[in-house]
Write a structure and sequence with these properties.
Blueprint (H helix, E strand, L loop, with lengths): L4 E5 L8 H14 L4 E5 L5 H4 L4 H9 L4 H7 L8 E2 L5 E4 L8 H5 L8 H12 L4 E5 L6 H8 L3 E7 L8 H12 L6 E8 L6 H11 L15 H8 L4 H4 L4 H17 L1
Helix pairs in contact: 1-12
């Protein structure tokens, strides 16, 4: 097996479709025969809820085997992995206690690299083709930690009047992180919640095309009720309803991501 590639899904603006994109790209990769580990780095637990019922997610969040406790102990993350019901797809769950992680990282030695060290043995083992990390919608020490643990970055952006808000800050932050994580590369922007009937989709595309050296994925995700139904069923839409438009779009996006990672 080749080198494990770690990809972070991040945007400092909430509602960008970040967790949904992370979960569905990961599930599509797994369907394509790739071994995938998902890491839920957000206190909102949305990535975990994409694969497990709410009761089970809250149980994992309240227990000892989640990302919050692993980071606090600076543990190897191998023992925190749980299997999903999908072949080739595993998860490290999050905790609502992640809300205090910024304060707890502050006193740690080399705090920017704690997650990277936690993933080191997993990556060296080569068990997974991809590790996908869902970052919280913030800019700070914990997101910096996630970025320093990553090889590549995907930035989901909602195609709406406010979707672009704060994107410049996001890329300024990424540039700062690249000063200490020189190998980190931005794969591109993935447009989500696209409504082709609305004029602001065209405006969003025009604004993105004006940004220098930023790739925009050709596969974008349109508004689709199948996504909401899949979330209600604690399943990625690529598994819940593979024939849906959004499932096909996420599968195409996953293919683009894998191609750019080669």
């Amino acid at each position: 097996m080749g080198k494990t590639v770690t990809i972070c899904f991040t945007n400092n603006k909430g509602g960008s479709g970040k967790s949904t994109t992370c979960s569905n790209v990961g599930a599509a990769m797994a369907q394509a025969g790739k071994r995938v580990l998902l890491v839920d780095g957000d206190m909102q637990l949305n990535l975990s809820l994409s694969f497990f019922e709410e009761e089970q997610v809250l149980e994992m969040a309240a227990g000892e085997k989640n990302l919050y406790h692993a980071i606090g102990k600076q543990d190897d993350l191998t023992d925190y992995i749980v299997s999903t019901k999908y072949e080739n797809l595993d998860l490290i769950p999050s905790s609502t206690l992640m809300s205090s992680i910024e304060y707890e990282l502050f006193t740690k030695w080399q705090r920017e690299f704690i997650l990277k060290k936690g993933l080191q043995k997993i990556k060296e083992a080569g068990t997974y083709d991809y590790i996908l990390i869902d970052a919280p919608p913030t800019l700070g020490g914990w997101v910096m930690n996630i970025l320093c643990a990553s090889d590549r970055v995907v930035v989901p952006v909602e195609a709406s009047p406010w979707g672009m808000f704060g994107l410049a800050n996001m890329f300024e932050f990424l540039a700062q992180v690249q000063q200490i994580a020189g190998d980190l590369k931005v794969l591109g922007i993935a447009l989500t919640k696209v409504d082709m009937r609305k004029s602001y989709f065209k405006q969003t595309m025009e604004l993105l095309q004006e940004m220098e050296d930023i790739h925009v994925f050709s596969s974008f995700i349109r508004v689709d009720s199948a996504i909401e139904w899949s979330q209600d069923s604690s399943a990625p839409v690529v598994a819940y309803k593979k024939s849906s438009r959004s499932a096909k779009e996420y599968i195409a996006l996953a293919e683009e991501v894998m191609t750019l990672c080669r």
